[in-house]
Amino acid sequence: MNKPNIFLIEEDNDARRLFRERLKADGYRVSLAIDEDDAIERIGSGLKADLILINLLEKSPDEILRFGRNIRRAGKLNAPLVVIAGKYGADLEGTNAQISENEYIAYLEDGEQLFDLLSSLTGRS
Questions:
Q1: Assigned architecture for domain 5-121
Q2: What is the pLDDT of residues 37-65, one digit of tens each?
């Protein structure tokens, strides 16, 4: 079976390592970028992904969505885009907001929520 490739853009070293380990344990291939510049460079070199997962701590969900759209456009990808929101109110906690057909913002209550969303978007559920 072909393993889906997730392009993970994560600034935090510890979180990036944990995400990578968990995604690999769940049967995904993982391509990593440490920040926006790194992500643009990797996409420019022809990286292909089945899903783009972005967690940029200092950006708003809207800013991250714009960046993710630019990544998809630059890489000519039609992959789902999942943004992990960093700051949000209790009313959003535990929800996944579908912004468009292929774009989501995850307002995490726990880690399993994210991995359930990724499974459903990559057809692994």
A1: 3-Layer(aba) Sandwich (3.40)
A2: 899 899 988 899 999 999 988 888 889 99
Residue 6 φ then ψ, to 5°: -105, 125
DSSP annotation string for 61-113: HHHHHHHHHHHHHHHT----EEEE-SS--TTTTTEEEEEETTEEEEE-SSHHH
| CB < 8 Å & 24+ apart, contacts of 66-69 | 67/36, 67/39, 68/103, 69/103
Amino acid in position 61: P
Question: Tokens 């994210």 — which residue?
Answer: 114
What are the distances in angstroms from CA 39 to CA 26, 51, 71, 117?
A: 23, 14, 8, 22
pLDDT exceeds 70 at position 99: yes
Q: Where are the domains of the chain?
A: 5-121
The one-letter amino acid at 36: E
CA 82/CA 51 separation, integer angstroms: 8
